[in-house]
Structures are given as C-alpha cells and as structure tokens.
Predict the 3D structure of the following.
Amino acid sequence: MLLRSLKLHIIQCGFAPVVLQVSRTCSNMPLSDTHQSPDNAVSGKQVKSERKLVVPSNSRFIYPEFLPDPKMEWRNSLREKLERLDMIQRRKHIDIPEFYVGSILAVTSSNQHAPNKATRFVGICIQRLGCGLRANITLRNVIKHVGTEIKYQLYDPTIQKIEVLRLEKRLDDELLYLRDAPNEYSTFDENMEAEYLPEGTPVPVNTTLVKLKPRPWRARWERKNMKGLADLELEERFYKRAEELATPWEKYDLMKQYRRTIPEEEQKEIFAEVCSELHEVEVMRKKLKRKKVFVKPTRSS
Amino acid sequence: MSKIIKCTILDLSTLLRVTYTGITVNQIRSAHNVRPPRIKYPLWHLQRERAKDDQQLTEDNRAFVKEAVHDKFGMPAVIHGISTYEVRSPLKEDSVERKNVEWHPKLKRTGLIARKLGNYPMWSDNGKSMLATLFQVIDNHVIKYIPPGEFDPPRKPYSCPKHKKELGCLLVGAESADPQYYTKQYCGLFYREGMMPKKILGRFLISPEAALQPGTPLLASHFRPGDFIDIRGKTIDRGFQGVMKRHGFHGLPATHGVTKSHRRGGNIGHGGEKGRVFPGTKMPGHMGNRYRIHKGAEILRINHKYNVIWVKGVASPGETNSIVYLHDTILPLRKHKITPPFPTSKEVEDDQLIDSYKEHMYKFTDPTITFEEEK
C-alpha cells in the first residue's frame, strides 16, 4: 500500500530527467483571463477569489527554487517560510522570468569596476542549482575565442535585469559537456535580439546533438547517460566499463526518489502560499512589458 | 563435665552481655572508601518524563482534563509563530515594581534559549554576500531567580572562587508543554511560579541587578542588530573519526609506495629518553557531541514577528533544529558600547516593526543595488 502511494507521488511529483510536455498554456491561463477583462472590476474580483485556489500545475518548473532542499536534516518550516517571504520581496524589484537549462539569457548586473557601473553578459544557461535564496545559474559563452562562464545568484540584489533572449530547452538537465565541445556550440552573439514566443505555445525543445572534441574530457561523458551527445567515437572498452558501472535499477528505487523530491501535497501547500503574490508580481511585469512595447515607436523617431 | 562446660559458656555469654550493655557502644558501620558524591546536582535536575500509561479515560474525561489545564494555566495560542499558551506577563502589569538600575559594562544580563533554523545568504548594501545563520527564540520565560547567597553551583571554578559568589542564577524555560506529560515534581518547579512546565530548562548566571520576575517573557529584541553574541550549543555527533576528519591532518601520500596508510596520522611520539606518548596528542577518537561556544558572532537582522535572529557566519555549533544558548559576548572589544535593553526588552505591540537590520545591510524590500559613477 505504502509503495503504491509512493509510486503515485513519483509519477505526479518526481522530477523527471527530461520533461518535454510542459506547455506554457497552463501557467498563462489565469493571466490571459486578466487580459480579457482588465476594466471590468467586479468580474475581475470574482476571478481573483477563484484563482487563489488554483495553483498552476507547472509552478514547480517555472519557480523550482521555491521548493526547499529535500534533505531532511536541513529542513525547517519556519526558515523555509522566511526565505520565501524574502524571495517574493526581491521579486518585486526584479523580474526573474521563466527559463530552463538550454535557454539563452542576458544578465545585467551592477559592477563597481565596469565603465558604466554595470555589465551585461549573454550566454546559454548550462546549469541551474540551489533552492531558496541560494538559487543560482551558470551562463556560458565564448568571448574572443575564450570560453567564459559566469555563475549568478538569482536573488543577488546587484542583478539589475534578467532577459530571456531565446526560451528553449535541451535534451539534458545539465549542459556541462559544452565545456568539452567545440566553441561553436556555445558561441552566442552579445547583441542578440530577444525572440518572442506567442502566448500559449509550449516551450520548444532544441534537439541538437553535440559533437565533442576528442578526449581528454572534464568528465567521462560515456558514463553519464547524456541524451544530447552525438556518437562519442570511443573504443569498445569504454562502453563496456560504462555498462558495468551503470545503475539502471535506481529508477525503480522508490524510497530514493521519495527522499530526493518534495511530496506533491507539500508542493501544493508551498505554491498555494506564494501563488497569489507571485501572480501579482507577474501581472505587474506584464503591464510593464506592455508599456515598454508602447514606448518602442518613439525610439525610431 | 560437659554440663559444667556448657554452663560456663552460657554464663560467660550472659556475663559478657551484661558488660556490653553497661558500656553501650553504638556501632557506626561505614566503609571508609565511600566518599560523598562530588557533583551535587542543582535543585532543578529532576525526573522530567513520566512513564507512559494509558489512563483509560473516556473522551469526555479527556476533554475535561484538557479544559482544566487550560483554565489553570491559560488558553492555547500561537504567539510569535509558536503554538504555546497565553501566559501572564509581569512586565505588562503595573503592579510589579522594577528596579531602576543604570546599566554599566560590568553587569551581566540574562541570555536566551533558541533553536537553530539553518542558514541562508544575506547581502550588504555594497553587494557583498554573506551567509547568515537563523536562530529562533522559542517562547522563553523566566522561571525562577536564585540570589547569589542561595545559589550553590555544582561545579565551582578553581581559578576565581569569588566569581560566582557575586552572580545569581536565573532559570529560563523554553517551549510550554502540557503538564499531563511530565512528572509531578518537575511540574511543581513551574507551578510554584504559576507557569506551565517547559520542555527546555536553562540556567544563566546574572548579576543581581539584572534579576527578572518569574513569568517575564524573553524576546529576540533582548539583543539588537549589530550586537555580538556568544552561541553555546552541542556540536554535531560524528562518532569515531580518523585523524584527517577530526584534526584536519593531511594524511600520507597516495602513491610512492605507501600502502594501507593513506589516511593515518603518522608518528605520534618520541623515542629515547621520553619514551611515551604525550598527553593531548591528536589521535583518532570520538568527534562532536560536546558543548562548544562560538564567540563574538554579529547579529545582522532581527525579525520581531517570529523572534528570529540572523547571525553572521555558519560556525555556530549544532545541527539544524538543535537548541542553543545565546549570551552577550565575553570578548572585551565586542561588548556593548551603547546601553542594551536592561534587564530585558519590553514587549512592544507594533505591527509595523517586523524586521530590523544592522546598518549597511541590504534589506530585501530595498530596490536593486546600483553604483554611481564618480565624477
């Protein structure tokens, strides 16, 4: 019985290694309602009261850092709550958009030593780690033929702006193998323009296969079971050893999965707590965005 | 012949008895090698937990007992984010007289009992990040004050015998609990002062001027952002550990012919005249699970709603959710420079004041940090 219930948990809440079918429709459903009736205050209020109960089902993909570290020894409900409050306070001043590993981002941060006291870095997000206020991302780009990576704390108050230039996913959860790939795989134009996706379209998955440079590498990629890698062209013994060391039974280890994730009930609780405030922040952002779009024609004159 | 002998023996015994009763020697039987116990435990070290027994009460009776408890001590309430009971506070009442003593640096205030919540980053207003550890002051109340003359500490310091004669003892309890689950004698400690039993009972040595009435709540505002505190707690129990983990030795080389001793300590002593291992040599053994004090930690922020204190650094002892004791620091250069709340802070009912930060800290309600160009 316990096992069965656990299995249900995992199917519903476990972080699948690659989630292809996350559509943006669900998250934007409540938002699109507000677009249709922004003036009608009465109906808007009704919708709002209803919406408080509805938590978008894909919140855990859009706001993964709101889920606490599942390690039991480090958990404390009050600390997690205070952390969430601080995160929302910070989100009122900076727009942290929806993005995934593989998306191309531009981060502008204050820098005392830069000429304009700010630096902008464009790159592909190769790693997303941490929960709560420690959430961080690693951006990678090749600048003047030198591979460059910058790790940004998402809630660092010196970050001025986070833009998503191209919203997409890759086949893997971590793209650290780009360090061993030729430069063209992680070269992005610094003056790249943002590509907008129409409302309600699912997040596209970029299925390019990366061809690595010959060994030596920073890790034994043949053992990591990466989906976004082209044929590694290794000798037979490497694959043999990888097969020996593989642990394919781990995906059936329900307790391991359970300990590694936050149960669905708890996730719902957490998002129900922050949902209304996050939603307000998002609506504000949308309004600002529309204003920006409206301002745009003046630039041409 | 035998009869005669018998008689004489009997007579002898009677004779002897007579003589003994005449002298009346009271025997005191004692083993000379039994000494009185060295440690005299303090009065409040009592059996705490009661043996669990099912009282076989009906639902109604159970409810009645609960009601009786609430009538006697106070209704359950959530105060500062902790589910506890409403306790009368003598600081709120005007009838309690408080001594008006001016604070001076030689006076010793009480400390607080807190729970470690974990850590997360904070930023200063120039964008520098630092990790902070969170401590929640958990429903602290003064239970009893024992003046210096009456207080007889179990372990007296050899170095300065005068030291503790000048200090009184303040019993502080944390986290109220239902008296049904504790022994009568333990509950009696609190009942004399009109309090509910507490899960945690701590002791602070204070100067008599800083004495507090039983029932006084102790809050996080006892300290202020920018103050330095000492944090005493029990370190994480790591069990029997080798020399590399326990003392940070480097171990022996991984290669070059080294076998089976990559993590060993190497040589531990001398030969020749000394011919022994010196006491205190760093060797493998049990690590952790002992009281340690993190001295001079700085307070960065205080949340008055949940009584949470943010302290700079992650060096404070103990696991997450463990109990620690917070004191004013004893480091001479980090002691209070301005008068602190003396003997403790009053409860202020102000909904606006939730967070107070140390100066030059980034508040999460502040806008993004930007630097201005120098001209």
Chain B has four helices and 15 strands. Chain B touches chain A at residues 81, 117-118, 120-121, 123, 126-127, 129, 134, 136, 303, 306, 308, 319-321, 362, 364-373 (CB under 8 Å). The two ends of chain B are 134 Å apart (CA to CA).
